[in-house]
């Protein structure tokens, strides 16, 4: 019969297990707080691309472009930005829609996550 000593036992200690759970929990909470912002940014990109790819959108006035963006943002429940926050840049015969914004999400106490989002689309 073989005697098992403490030195020959393998595995993780209780303290290491608790440390692992706390690190994993912190990462999970951070991911859960950040995921909605990334999903919203995906909706913003789709809305900007849709408005930019509409035929004749290059000839629309800036206010009409912003109205169309607002309609798409409302349908997709976008709350971070409005149509007035999208920059419309005209260089020569080219017209671009530029989105540049940041989102701050509090994690706990005085610790927050800051996410910066940027996207541009050329109008057709």
What does this structure look like?
The protein has 124 residues and is α+β, with helices and mostly antiparallel strands. The chain has one domain. The protein contains two helices and three strands; from the N terminus they run ααβββ. The protein has a three-stranded antiparallel β-sheet with strand order 1-2-3, with helices on one face. The radius of gyration is 24 Å and the shape is rod-shaped. The model has no long low-confidence stretch (mean pLDDT 91).
Task: Kindly report how far apart the N and C termini lie.
Answer: 81 Å
Order of helices and strands: HHEEE
Please tell me the total number of domains: 1
Shape: rod-shaped
Per DSSP, what share of the residues sits in E-state strands of 2 or more residues?
Answer: 25-35%
What is the mean predicted local confidence, pLDDT?
Answer: 91
Would you identify the regions where 5 or more consecutive residues have pLDDT less than 50?
Answer: none
Class from helix and strand fractions: alpha+beta
Q: Would you count the extended β strands for me? A: 3
Number of helices: 2
Percent of residues in helices comes to: 40-55%
Q: What summary fits the major beta sheet?
A: 3 strands, antiparallel
Secondary structure elements and pairings:
Layout: H1 14-53, H2 62-75, E1 87-91, E2 94-108, E3 111-122
Antiparallel strand pairs: 1-2, 2-3
């Amino acid at each position: 019969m073989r005697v098992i000593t403490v030195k020959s036992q393998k595995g993780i200690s209780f303290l290491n297990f608790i440390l692992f759970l706390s690190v994993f929990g912190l990462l999970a909470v951070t991911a859960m707080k950040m995921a909605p912002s990334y999903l919203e940014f995906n909706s913003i990109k789709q809305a900007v691309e849709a408005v930019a790819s509409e035929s004749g959108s290059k000839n629309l006035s800036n206010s009409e472009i912003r109205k169309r963006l607002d309609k798409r943002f409302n349908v997709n429940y976008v709350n971070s930005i409005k149509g007035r926050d999208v920059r419309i840049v005209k260089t020569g015969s080219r017209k671009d829609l530029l989105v540049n914004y940041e989102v701050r999400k509090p994690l706990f106490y005085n610790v927050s996550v800051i996410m910066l989002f940027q996207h541009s689309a050329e109008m057709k």
